Amino acid sequence: MTSLTIPLSNQFIRPTNGQVGANLQPDQDAQCTYLCGNSLGLMSKRSQTLVQEELDIWGTRGVVGHFNHPLNRPWVEYTHKLTPLMAEVVGADEKEVTVMATLTSNLHLMMDSFYKPTPERFKILCEAKAFPSDQYAFMSQVLAHGHDPKEAILELNPREGEYTLREEDILKTLQEQGSSIALVLFSGVQYYTGQWFPMELITKKAKEQAVGNVPLRLHDWNVDFAVWCTYKYLNSGPGGIAGMFMHEKWNSIERPKFAGWWGHELATRFEMPPTFSPINGVQGFQQSNPSVLALASLLGSLEVLREAGMMYPVRERSVQLTSALEKLLMGSKYFVPPSEVSQKYGKSGSTSPGFTIITPTEPSSRGAQLSLLILPMGSGIMQKVFNSLVLYGVIGDERQPDVIRLAPAPLYNTLVDCENSVNFLDKALESL
Predict the structure, then answer these.
(1) pLDDT by residue (tens digit) across 28-66?
(2) Residue 402 annotated in ligand binding
(3) Catalyses which reaction (predicted)?
């Protein structure tokens, strides 16, 4: 193992039991068991420091901070400190990456450039139960081009009785329907089940037909574009600034359609010329000047990630930690193997509480989360279990109607967090 044998827990600020409402915990000042990094990562102390520094400089320098910065971080060039780190995170060349706006806004910008439907090729291939904001974007883009979402959005569902997509089914769909598919849009890790999709294979097969918490190689995989948020495993804070990638092969083809002054070349940006002269590549898609406070928060977190060795050692520890949580969960008396769910909880089956894991068991096919399907399905007890976990100081998140997600983040979670979560899950189920 690397330096991540011991996580960087002391570099993050974790809420206490009292602060999250864990009323069943006698020690209200003790740290809670935070397993919700897949929804909102914890704040790093480095981010807190950098944001406070920018607040102080705003107060003492005002507008002068854009060019004359006492800590050598002039606001007009702040993203220059972020793009090399972000490029390393996603496996791209620095000029293929920019930090701007929010995920869905960036998705619309990229889809507007790359979704070019024709009467024969107009479908968007995606996974069923994609993140709702993504689904809304897909639908609105399809409608804007005059197509019926029911026909144009091709959603792949798991096979009956299964919870995740099979790789062969994705590739088969691309093979059989590729001539009608205009765009292939998959999340890296499926937010509901935690399945990690084989992005390199999907990209390769999509190219043959239709010309972001894990290590990525977007450039080498020949991905056309990608967008991602930073407030989860990159710990940039609620609503944190997002990232965007466009492969350099498109630089001379796809130019910004919706220009903004921050996409104008820096040398003449503040001369305010009447003609837009975009930065070459994806950085030319920038529009408004970004919030320096959001940039500072992200920079702090990325600097912690760099201290940890970036994505590959982080992923190594993530696999170990998630596997440890899985083993503990499978040792619970309330655990039901996925293959036995239909038999035990089928028609007129058991009404006793339990759970199964719908995230793939193979580490290469999942991210850092485990999605627990609370049984029996449709009984309404999931919310009761989730509420009990909060009272015990275990913070995960729920997805209606029956799923609780627990995500051990490799930068700050520990084996003790995993043990606590399973112990209190058993108590919550026992109380039912």
Answers:
(1) 999 999 999 999 999 999 999 999 999 999 999 999 999
(2) no
(3) L-kynurenine + H2O = anthranilate + L-alanine + H(+); 3-hydroxy-L-kynurenine + H2O = 3-hydroxyanthranilate + L-alanine + H(+)
